[in-house]
Amino acid sequence: MNAATNQMNQWEQKYYDITELYRLSDELLATVEGAANPEMQLGLVESLIETIGASADVLTDEYIALCEGATPTRKKSAKTKVEGALRKVYIAVADFNTRARDMRNAAHVIVKKLKRQLEQVIENFVEMVALALDRIMQKHDVEELKARHANIALMLYSAHGKGQAT
């Protein structure tokens, strides 16, 4: 396999990592159909589903633009948009967790999968743009991410050593 084909396959896989967010959004919607009280379930997950969709749109657009050409200006613009899109999802997840904290709910399992998928998306973007994780997620989320992704922990350590924000 030549280098160009290999690069295209890697970019394609990383794009699918982002579009997986749409599938997880559909899984959340399916919990409404199977709920004992569909209206209550919809009220619980609707905001999260909408946020995931809007953020996934931004993330796919920015990913494609970065793959097409990552100039310094493009990277700066992408950094702001990607951080904003990811932050919105993390806020929506925290809101869902607060509202559904004391309930047994099928959506909890999907939200856990969503957080893992977001971590993969972050890992993919970190290879292209220097993201400030503290602008995206809460400290406990950053710690979980560092524990599961050694290369992100190393990146944060390197950036901190150079006096950069993490």
Structure, briefly:
This protein is mainly alpha-helical. It has helices at 3-33, 38-68, 72-99, 107-126, 139-148, 150-161.
- Uncertain segments of ≥5 residues (pLDDT<50)? 159-166
Mean pLDDT: 87
Task: State the end-to-end CA separation.
Answer: 37 Å
Q: H/E order of the elements?
A: HHHHHH
Q: Which descriptor suits the 3D outline?
A: globular
Q: Which value, in Å, is the CA radius of gyration? A: 17 Å
The number of helices is 6
Estimate the helix proportion, in percent: over 70%
**Quantity of strands, as a count:** 0
Q: How much strand?
A: under 5%
Largest sheet report: none
By secondary-structure content and strand pairing, the structural class works out as mainly alpha
- Count of the domains: 1
How are the elements arranged and paired?
Blueprint: H1 3-33, H2 38-68, H3 72-99, H4 107-126, H5 139-148, H6 150-161
Helix pairs in contact: 1-2, 1-4, 2-3, 3-4, 5-6
Structure description:
With 166 residues, the protein is an all-alpha fold. It has one domain. Helices cover 80% and strands 0% of the residues. The protein has 6 helices and no strands. The longest helix has 31 residues, at 3-33. The chain starts with a helix and ends in a 5-residue tail after the last helix. Residues 159-166 have low confidence and may be disordered.
